[in-house]
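Raw record, unedited: ArgG
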Amino acid sequence: MTKTARTSRQSARVVPLRKGTTLEMVRLCCPDAAQVSLISESFGLPVLDSDGIRDLHEKLIVETADALGEGLGERAMQIHLQRIVGAYVGSAHGAGQFYSRAVTEARDATAKAANDARDEDLDGPVGFDSAAQRKREFAADMALQSHALRMAAEGAVAAYAQVVGERWKPFERPVENPGQSVDRKAAEMQLAALG
């Protein structure tokens, strides 16, 4: 092996990638149709038309792509739809994470309310809900919101596959500063100077 071939391989640098949000991640943190139906029934909330939301968003993106078809080339369409679908998936994932936190807070508040020795967690005056009940109701509202956004994201992903002809996957951008941050390096130098 020649010296130039060896040095070119050694100088190759691996660039770490910042992972994007996938539809699988959304499915893990947002409730599915069966769970959201149970939540709606338990809390007296509206029953969502999950399939309708999904189908409408799929149709919306397919029709948008059709309208843009003459003005965009194949690669430009793919990049445009990549960004659009990424926004839907990212929004659903954010809502799912918020829902998960709301459920945790509701469970914690309910567990505390079960302890008879805690005055601050007792039910409020007659006609007012307890803090734990309000947290459970808030978590139920967040379940519906995150599920609706999940269905919109699933419709967008399906539309991408239909228009582009391949499965959508999140864009993974290179990490901008894979090493230590400038602040960290500066702090180390300052500490070294202090002795």
